[in-house]
Amino acid sequence: MSRVSAQLSSLEIFRQWYEDSFTEFKLVSEWKDVNAGYALGYFPVYFPVEIPYSFNALPVALYGAEGRINLDIAIAHTQSFVCTICKSVFQLGAEDRLKAFDVLAFSNICDVARNLSGIMKRNLVDKEIVYLHFPIHNDTPLAIKYLVDEYKRLIDVLENVTGIKYDEERLRDSIKQFNEKRRLVKRLMKIRREKPWLIPFTEFYVVVKAGSVMPVEMFNKLVSKYLREVGSRRVRPADRLRILIKGNFCEQPPLMYMKTIEDAGAYIIEDESLIGQYWIGEVDLDGDPLVSLAKAYVENPSPLTVRFHPSIDKQEYIKREIRDKKIEGALFLSPKFCEPSLYDYVIYKKALDDIHFPYLHLEYEETTSSFEHLRTMVETFVESIMFD
Ligand code: SF4
Prior knowledge:
alpha/beta; Rossmann fold; 4-stranded parallel sheet; 8 strands; binds iron/sulfur cluster
């Protein structure tokens, strides 16, 4: 941490990394210079960040540009029915804003992301592009072995780019750091579940998104400090509806969009934005770390929209979430043209219809810039439940 950073509050440092994470990536370049390191940018939703970090390559999530750049080049290269995050990530590459990254990684989360990888490869010819195939049949014993082989392919790429040899012990250390990070994020989520008035959603989001860019040790140290700051806050609870949000796991709604929802009378108790930062949970430190990482993906009992897992009953899962987290209303936020989000909506909607639970479905884009209509919709939804 620089001397200037040491004088800032933890939240101010999170804000700096957050602001840097859309179009600039200057802090990523600085980190590379100071640490003689590398950087790997990955497209959401989930990526085994521990692997590049064990090669001294900073893993950075590319969550789009939040409407901060013009998408003209991307619009000329893609169909009109493509989600906006794919356009903005392509545009970032086309404008050479991704030059800090030595490797860009994509995976088979959906057809659009799959094709994005190909378009990037064709247009950014000097860039190392890696494409990970996560297993489709996650309930077969071969899935773990298959995923380990995929991770070995990623390791080959990283060895070539960095000139560093794969080291099991370094990977285990990296897993230890990221396990701690996920524990800390879950502590923040627990506070939001129990006392959502202590950490506004917008603040929580800035902290976790900053954590998708900054080096993990720095994040862990700053969150511990931030947790102490939060613990000393004296804030009175407001009379607001406790809501659960589903569908925003990949393309991110603008932060103002989420603020408008809370300002309309809700506490966002949990949502899926940035879910890839904590979903994998605690990765086992015993045994072969590649197997542990693969197991944590394949055997994870929590649903992830972009992972097909037939043995997980999503309808029972959402009913349990509503009960356990004392949820009073649900919002389904679907990025425009996002099929995975819409498929999940159909599944969850049926579960909520069965128990006559109130919900609202809305569409957004990361470029959404008008929030009046949203405010009216959410206010009406909240009032219809609170004054029922
Ligand atoms: S927003 Fe949806 S359609 Fe677009 S890349 Fe993400 S999962 Fe695929």
